[in-house]
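Q: Hi! First time doing this. I have a protein sequence and I read that you can turn it into a structure. Is that right? Here it is:
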Amino acid sequence: MKNNNIEKPFLVVVMLIFTVIGALHFARLSLGWDVLLDNWNVPTLLSGFIILVSVFIIYWAWIILNQQKDEEGDKEKSLGEPEGENKSFN
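A: Yes, that's right. Below is the predicted 3D structure, encoded as structure tokens:
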């Protein structure tokens, strides 16, 4: 990833938004709320599908964030002293 300074906050916001969306649809399923859009009763099965999509997107964003952390750790290791040097003063 080239520009981590923009991607990290974006991915965190994506995770928060889809957490709220998933939680609201879970509340709809568990509490039995009905949704009516212009005389169309939205099926509860659609909420189940939206929950699955939300979980997938949250998981995907989490994986990308962890990959970025791993890449940053690798960069810090490569910027330090070479692994072969002895740090002790014997």
